[in-house]
Write a structure and sequence with these properties.
single chain, six-stranded parallel β-sheet, Rossmann fold, alpha/beta, 424 residues, eight-stranded mixed β-sheet
Length: 424
């Protein structure tokens, strides 16, 4: 089928790169977002998110006049829904944005159109939520228009490359829909394109992230056990991983981001009675920030009034994405315990957290402190020289939660060193 105009709803970390990639491939694209500030900034050529190479890609797409930014959909051949799917406090999926995007498409839906849902969603969302809304148009899904689910599977910091090179899963509500979806993504995807059913594609995305979440959970439990037994978990993991069939991940202050920390709950919600392992792993990782705070309390004797410098707030190294970040949860818990917290996030120095003093640079962050807390393994934080740091800070204690610092070098420089998963 011919795709002359493509409408992308949701201009976040996935929608904006996707819209821009289609546009630079020569197709007419309308990028839609309901946030007026996002629409306004993009129309001026200013980005609201940070991703290597994205600024140039968006500018090229807009300058080519193939990408237009709007607050509402238009008639198009294909509609791609790439809106957020957060969850409620009860750990249930909030499909408000998906429903709203689908409703906005209905007046513009025509025979022969293709509708793609990219937003991570619980199983059966495509068939049981999206399709009934779209059929309010009076058209029949699978007969008059095609519907597919195709999840994004990219890594922040490498989105533009992985968007093109990664394998793509296309789940159709029927075979014709899957074929239409494959034809659309063949425009720019160089990786293998696999077609399947919509519900299978939904499960694939959730399974990938749940698998990783469970593996991180066991690493975090190993860290707690090492602390209990008086050994170094980092050494133990390194030795265990010499086994050819063992690959234990590294522990840390928790699990964040909009995928791994969220997706497993979608499976628990959909089938609570048969997902005890998934639920337990999620609870282990959700509790990990509080385990970090507990260890800090043990190190300092009390948190009340203590000056703690938190280094890194992003949910993972070398990105500016703070969604569901365990580092943020740690500093909020420290504040609640009465600590005086200063935080430094090199990739988002302008970010603010109520009650937390945000430093614009490292020197400012560490100048007056009782303890330096490494929460994110950012490259520029890993390589700082403890000898130089000693001269810039009043702190003489460090707590490394991510295994980023060589303990011997920091000890030799004059610091008391504590690490997650190592009883000191």
């Amino acid at each position: 089928m011919a795709f002359e105009t493509i409408c992308v709803l949701g201009l976040g970390y996935i929608g904006l790169p996707t819209a821009s990639t289609f546009a630079t491939a020569g197709y007419k694209v309308v990028g839609v977002d309901t946030n007026p500030s996002i629409v306004y900034s993009l129309q001026k050529g200013e980005l609201h998110i940070s991703e290597p190479g994205l600024s140039k890609l968006v500018k090229d797409a807009i300058q080519s006049k193939n990408l237009a930014i709007s607050s509402s959909p238009i008639l198009a051949d294909a509609f791609i829904i790439a809106v957020p799917t957060p969850f409620y406090d009860q750990k249930k999926a909030d499909l408000t944005f998906v429903r709203s995007a689908a409703e906005s498409i209905v007046p513009f839906l025509r025979r022969g159109n293709l509708v793609v849902l990219e937003s991570t969603s619980p199983p059966l969302t495509t068939n049981e939520v999206l399709v009934p809304i779209l059929e309010k148009s009076g058209l029949k899904a699978g007969e008059d228009f095609n519907v597919v689910y195709s999840p994004e599977r990219v890594l922040p910091g490498q989105i533009l490359r992985e968007l093109i090179e990664n394998a793509r899963v296309i789940g159709g509500i029927n075979a014709d829909s899957a074929a239409a979806g494959k034809e659309l993504y063949q425009i720019f995807v160089k990786g293998e394109i696999i077609t399947t059913t919509a519900t299978t594609a939904e499960m694939v995305k959730l399974m990938e992230n749940t698998y990783r979440d469970i593996n991180i959970a066991i690493a975090n439990e190993f860290a707690r056990l090492a602390d209990r037994f008086g050994i170094d978990v980092w050494e133990a993991i390194q030795i265990a991983n010499l086994h050819p069939r063992v690959k234990i991940l590294n522990p840390g202050p928790g699990v964040g981001g909009h995928c791994i920390s969220v997706d497993p709950w979608f499976l628990v919600e959909a089938a609570t009675d048969i997902t005890p392992l998934i639920r337990t792993a999620r609870q282990v990782n959700d509790e990990q920030p509080h385990f970090v705070v507990q260890k800090l309390n043990e190190i300092l004797g009390t948190l009340a009034g203590k000056k703690i410098t938190a280094l890194g707030l992003a949910y993972k190294p070398d990105v500016d994405d703070l969604r569901e970040s365990p580092a943020v949860e740690v500093v909020q818990a420290l504040l609640a315990a009465g600590a005086d917290v200063t935080a430094f996030e090199p990739f988002k120095p302008g970010f603010s957290i109520k009650g937390i003093r945000m430093a614009s640079n490292l020197a400012e962050a560490i100048s007056e402190s009782d303890l330096l807390l490494l929460l994110v393994n950012h490259t520029q934080l890993k390589v700082i020289d403890p000898g130089q740091i000693l001269e810039q800070t009043t702190a003489r204690i460090v707590f490394d939660t991510v295994g980023g610092w060589n303990p011997q070098i920091w000890q030799d420089a004059g610091f008391e060193v504590h690490r997650l998963g190592r009883a000191d």
